[in-house]
Write a structure and sequence with these properties.
- Strands 1, 2, 3, 4, 5, 6, 14, 15, 16, 17, 18 and 19 form a 12-stranded mixed sheet that branches. A 4-stranded mixed sheet has the order 20-22-23-21.
- Helix 4 crosses helix 17, helix 9 crosses helix 10 and helix 13 crosses helix 14.
- Strand 22 and strand 23 form a beta hairpin.
- The chain is an alpha/beta fold.
- The chain has 19 helices and 25 strands.
- The longest helix has 21 residues.
Length: 558
């Protein structure tokens, strides 16, 4: 049987005007700022007006470590949201916006798949409402103002060797990772080394996604450390007097975007911090607004649960005062086989033993998620090649872990295929059995926070930190940053720092290569192993196959 591509399905969607979608959540057309007919921003005045309402139930969707076989975390998030609405619940979906870099690289779009998608798919995966461009512009303004300050006499006595603010562009471009700026003589300033990160790795992105309102946004922007003086004292963005103008550039980007699923249910799509560099969740303002408007809010965390869910719990929930009622961990038969040692080309034939051999990866994620005090359900995202025996092997394994696995066929059938999952998730959420708590307290030392995550979540013997890194962490503690959570930057493909080490490895160590202070966002980044803040394009980038067809429609995004 031949299945339609995601973009074919999205193009055939029967979309409702965005005003009708807003009305489902009680948002009047006056409180929507439309971008065309099928997307809009929700006004800050409306958001302010609903703050005294009771919160709905928060449902987190996460997954096993990603494999080339595909897991379908966003697809399951959308499918579960549609499923909850199908069984009569008032539910809303919250996901991140897509970055242009990965879209034109190898990842493809980020709006779900099959019959569990958010639309308009093409716009969401391209420029959408311009949020990422605004973030790039605000970041670039600060970059320009730093170099301009140095050019006009450097009154702040910035040590040009210690400018830590890099530049950003929303594209995978390895040639820009390390560059020399201000070449060409006296009129162009003082030559220095710098480089580019991808926009989603910008601290401005992380700040936009963690801020409660425009005042909070401006304060956090001002708190960013951009350089150091020769005596090692920090220079802040507010010292450059850039925070006000940056806030102006981000005024509209701060307002959450509302769109719809294929089944015309509301979805907030807002923000998109890098999931293995920053905290990888959609914006706090979108999630908290959705919780005031819907009885159930389904949101996702980036990559596997060891990265995404850990940061969602320890950073986003801690900072925003959120507490999930239930966690859904997505797994697939195909991914279990890959974790069990089967090559991607050989995933088709039934292989129950390989499924069983790969299940320890899932088991460890279940254990980790339970350690946050939240009930866990496993969603088996169904592929048409899965056999009953393979699905049963996962169900049996999960039952042994004291959890429940439910087969969900949302990719193929939409909400009809996710109704069983939705019923069970709603029951657990309504039971109010969650007793959520982050896995470390604010007052723990930064080094111990890193060790706690490495030992308790990655099951490493230890985090390896040399004296220079320990001294840097101690210095930040002395400066008043010791209460911050830590944000681990490591490969998403393994519990270890070796991306090829699948399954549930033990007996490994986590080398911490460097640490960075994101004083505005409010976390300390621990860079582990080989991790890039500016990805490169693959040998054959997706961009080679993206084009307009004869009707002027986008082809090749999926």
């Amino acid at each position: 049987m031949e299945y339609k591509t995601d973009i074919q399905i999205a193009r055939e969607a029967n979309k409702l005007p965005i005003q009708e979608i807003g009305a489902k959540l009680g948002i009047s057309s006056d409180d929507l700022l439309p971008y065309g007919h099928d997307k809009a921003k929700v006004s800050q005045d409306f958001i302010n007006s609903v703050q005294d309402r009771k919160d709905g139930k928060l449902i987190l969707v996460t997954a096993i470590n990603p494999t080339p076989a595909g897991e379908g975390k966003t697809t399951t998030t959308v499918g579960l949201g549609d499923g909850l609405n199908r069984i009569g619940k008032n539910a809303c979906v919250c996901i991140r916006e897509a970055s242009l870099g990965p879209n034109f690289g190898m990842k493809g779009g980020a709006a779900g798949g099959g019959y569990a998608q958010i639309v308009p798919m093409e716009e969401m995966n391209l420029h959408f409402t311009g949020d990422f461009h605004a973030i790039t512009s605000a970041h670039s303004l600060l970059s320009a103002m730093i170099d301009n300050h140095i050019y006009w006499g450097n009154a702040l006595e910035i040590d040009t060797r210690r400018v830590v603010w890099r530049r950003v562009v929303d594209m995978n471009d390895r040639a820009l990772r390390q560059i020399t700026a201000s070449l060409g003589g006296v009129s162009n300033g003082f030559p220095r080394e710098t480089g580019f990160d991808i926009t989603v790795a910008s601290e401005v992105m992380a700040i936009l996604c963690l801020s409660n309102n425009l005042q909070d946004l401006q304060k956090r922007l001002g708190d960013m450390i951009v350089a150091y003086r020769r005596d090692r004292t920090p220079v802040f963005a507010r010292d450059i007097k850039a925070d006000g103008a940056m806030t102006v550039l981000l005024k509209d980007a701060m307002q959450p975007n509302i769109v719809q699923t294929l089944e015309n249910n509301p979805a907030f799509v807002h923000g998109g911090p890098f999931a293995n560099i920053a905290h990888g969740c959609n914006s706090v303002i979108a999630t908290t607004t959705a919780l005031k408007l819907a009885d159930y809010v389904v949101t996702e965390a980036g990559f596997g649960a060891d990265l995404g869910a850990e940061k969602f719990m320890n950073i986003k929930c801690r900072k925003a005062g959120l507490a999930p009622s239930v966690v859904v961990c997505v797994a697939t038969v195909r991914a279990m086989k890959m974790n069990g040692g089967v090559a991607k080309a050989d995933l088709g034939p039934e292989n129950v033993k390989a499924v069983q051999a790969g299940c320890p990866n899932l088991g460890r994620h279940i254990e980790n998620l339970k350690s946050f005090g939240v009930p866990v359900v496993v969603a088996i995202n169904h592929f048409v090649t899965d056999t009953d025996a393979e699905v049963q092997a996962i169900k049996d394994f999960v039952a042994e872990q004291g959890a429940e696995a439910i087969l969900s066929r949302h990719w193929e059938l939409g909400s009809e295929g996710s109704a069983d999952l939705a019923k069970r998730v709603a029951e657990i959420a309504d039971a109010d059995e969650a007793n959520f708590a982050p896995i470390y307290p604010d007052e723990m030392s930064l080094a111990d926070k890193i060790q706690t995550i490495c030992k308790n979540i990655y099951r490493a013997d230890e985090a390896l930190m040399d004296q220079k890194i320990r001294d840097q962490l101690k210095q930040w503690e002395d400066q008043g940053y010791g209460h911050l959570p830590v944000c681990m930057a490591k490969t998403q493909y393994s519990f270890s720092t070796d991306p090829t080490l699948r399954g549930a490895p033990v007996g490994h160590s986590v080398p911490v290569r460097e640490v960075r202070l994101s004083a505005g966002a409010g976390f300390v980044v621990a860079v582990c192993g080989e991790i890039m803040t500016m990805p490169g394009l693959p040998r054959v980038p997706s961009a080679e196959n993206i084009m307009l067809n004869d009707k002027g429609e986008v082809e090749g995004l999926f």
